[in-house]
Amino acid sequence: MTPKDNVILEVKNLNVEFTTDDGVVHAVNNVSYTVERGKTLAIVGESGSGKSVSSLAIMGLLTGTNSNVTGEVFFNGKELVGAHPDEVRKLRGDEMAMIFQDPLSALHPYYTIGDQLIEAVLVHNKISEEAARERAIEMLIKVGISSVEQRIDEYPHQLSGGMRQRIMIAMALINGPELLIADEPTTALDVTVQAQILELLRELQKEFGTAIVLITHDLGVVADLADEVLVMYAGSAVEHAGVRELFYEPQMPYTWGLLASVPQISVKKEKLDPIPGSPPSLLNLPIGCVFEPRCTFKNQVANNACVEKFPELLVVSQNHEARCHLSESQRIAIRTDRKIGKINK
Amino acid sequence: MFLMLTLLSIVVFLLFNAVPTDPARLTCGKSCTPEVIAANRIRLGLDQPLLTQYLEWIKGFFVGRTYGTGSATFECSRPCLGYSFRSGEEVTTLIVNAVPVTMYLALGAFTLWMVVGISAGIVAAKHQGKWQDRTIMGIALVGYSLPVFFVGLLLLIFAIVRWNVLPYPDYEPPFEDPVAFFQTMLLPWVTLAILYSAYYARLTRSQILETMGEDYIRTARAKGLSERVVFRKHAFRAGLTPIVTSAGLDLAGLLGGAIITEYIFSLPGLGRVAIGAVTDYDLPTITAAVLVSAVFIIIANLVVDILYVAIDPRVRIT
Question: Testing the interface with B: which of A52, A62, A111, A181 to mutate, by most B Cβ within 10 A?
Fold first, then answer.
């Protein structure tokens, strides 16, 4: 679709399995996507859908002996799966970085902000500690920390949650990475702070030209920041679309459920519309569609296909793929009927 | 801390003066006449009210005291912890002679087990689930399950009695006869270290594995730090806190006397003094021995707290 040199990250048929005492957990199954330079891909899904695990796998951070990563991950054209851990390590924090959900536990409680930032600089740059400190101060100012000279020598527990996440962002971007993986960066924060952090990410993305993989379950955040969206369910990618396409013409019952479960102030409702049931066990995935047990539309598909065959990820329109056995006319009918998406754009 | 020591001295003093026995009766043997007992009672100040006795005792510690009156006086200079009518010595002398022995025993064993235990724990944690881990944890489990008297006796019988690798234990101060000192102390050190090493290996392993699962370790890896730096700089320091607590209290406990080990290897340490005093109903000595070990524990707690501040910035005030 796109010229290769425009792509910073290309993931092909990524599989992640964990061997446990109960059996093999299939956390990520055949997930493929690409991220273009300077663009934002949001990965959406509920807990346990494999969105965090897949990004940890890309970063080479699944270090446990019980995990098994297969498939292909090209970062700047370089294959990361099966590469020597040291080679991936050299990229981490330098060309690709990651921020995490809970900034309090993600920062080391025993070291000052400055120590942790300087450390991040010195791993990848042969410069003096003073120069690294200069860079840290510069970066802290960029992420909007006030009275930096004082803050830099404080410990994480002395700062507020929003400030800690700003520091995580500063630490991740300090070496000017080309790719930032943000794993639910706003989940642990107050709503007002969330907005500030998202705004900050957007500004810094513009300034540094960083591509962002944004992992979230907050569709508001997706609408705000993403260019493209990948919806994951039970370890599989079930829908992949541009952000407008996804919100205007969602193609798959799970995505419909996600969109319908977001409360809307303009629509008066007695109660929310949650998706009934819970995701399947990753130890024992269904042979058919992973969403079939919870799908309310499976009866409209002939020949029991939903139970027997997992649908392929099919191209619906340009820049839009989805997995579903429902025919296009059926989907349009359901969307119109349920007022899902925006039919009259 | 001083409040604690004062309270402690009161409790200890009362405890041993509340025992249902007459201390004066214990001052002489079977041939005692009531007159002698009465005289001794006055001589040791036991006829005074309890409060006076306590104040005398405290005064003795800080300025010294004089037992008896008239021609039969006995001077006990400060710090006076009382007079042991059993051994006919000042308690202070007994304690002062015993403390170094126990201290050498405890410090030697402590060094040994900290080095062995923590290294073993680190190796096990780094090879979690592999044969190194299993072997170390297996040995640790055995070591942890063996009581001190069993290990001690085993070592004594084989190393000394059967194979004559070492001479019979005969305590000599280290500065007078270092060779004899080390020959005597080696087995007691090993005996104690086996038990504690096993415990510290397990503690270190579980602490490290726990911290390795923390989010900030993932952050450290995400920065691109090598596993060695992640481990040494980030994981080890964080896992250290509970080890420091344990180490402080265990060392303090041992400084109060390692009764069984001292007994097996006939070391004239605090534990021996205490146990001897208990079997002999030597009240002033028991009181002093308990007080000394309590003081060690209080000091250890203080040191542990200070170390916490050095390790963990969250504990610091402001």
Answer: A111
B19-40: string of b/e by CB count within 10 Å (b at 16+)?
A: eeeebbebbeeeeeeeeebebb
Q: Do A102 and B223 touch (CB under 8 A)?
A: no
Same domain, A179 and A40: yes
Domain count of the fold of chain A:
2
User: Do A72 and A185 lie in a common domain?
Assistant: yes
Model pLDDT for residues A176-220, shown as the tens digit of each residue: 888 999 988 888 788 888 888 888 888 889 888 899 999 988 888
Question: Helix, strand, coil: what percent of chain B each, to 5?
Answer: 70, 5, 25
Q: Which residues of B touch A59 (CB under 8 A)?
A: 222
Provide mean pLDDT across the span B70-78.
65
Separation of alpha carbons A116 and B216, rounded Å: 11
Complex ipTM > 0.85:
no
Number of C-beta neighbours around residue B76 at 10 A: 18
Which two three-digit tokens encode residue B210? 């726990």
Q: Is the Cβ pair B312, A110 closer than 8 Å? A: yes
pLDDT band for B149, please (50, 70, 90 cuts): confident
Cβ contact, residue pair B223, A63, below 8 Å: no
Query: Which among A63, A65, A120 is the nearest to B223, CB-wise?
Result: A120
Distance, CA of A23 to CA of A5 (rounded, Å)? 41
Residue A319's domain spans which residues?
252-338
- CB-hemisphere CA count at 13 Å for A265? 0
Examine the domain organization and report whether A284 and A321 are in the same domain.
Answer: yes
The yes-or-no verdict on residue A3 having pLDDT over 60 is no
A170 and A285 in one domain? no
* A56 belongs to a structural domain: yes
| Strand, helix or coil for residue B127 | coil
Chain B: residues touching A (Cβ < 8 Å):
128-129, 214-216, 218-226, 233-234, 237-238, 311-314
Same domain (yes/no): A119, A215 = yes
Per the prediction, chain A carries an average pLDDT of 85
Give the chain A residue nearest B309 (alpha carbons).
A110
CATH label of the domain that carries residue A197: 3.40.50.300
pTM over 0.80: no
Q: Which residues in chain A are contacts of B237 at CB distance < 8 A?
A: 110
Alpha helices per DSSP H over B176-231? 178-212, 215-222, 227-229
Three-point CA angle A91, A144, A173, nearest 5°: 5
Whether A65 and A143 map to the same domain: the answer is yes
Cα–Cα distance between B230 and A131 in angstroms, integer? 23
Q: Considering the domain boundaries, does residue A247 fall inside one?
A: no
Pick the closest to residue A332 from A316, A321, A319, A318 (CA basis).
A316
Is residue A298's pLDDT more than 70?
A: yes
- Residue A139 maps to a domain: yes
All structural domains of chain B, each given as residue ranges with its CATH number in brackets, are 2-80 (no CATH), 99-315 (1.10.3720.10)
Mutate to test the interface with A, among B134, B212, B217, B223 (most CBs of A within 10 A): B223
Task: List, in order, residues 6 or more apart from A103 with CB less than 8 Å away.
Answer: A156, A161, A164, A165, A167, A168, A188
Are A174 and A139 a contacting pair, CB within 8 Å?
Answer: yes
User: Are residues A78 and A111 both part of a single domain?
Assistant: yes
Same domain, A320 and A282: yes
- Note whether residue A345 is domain-resident: no
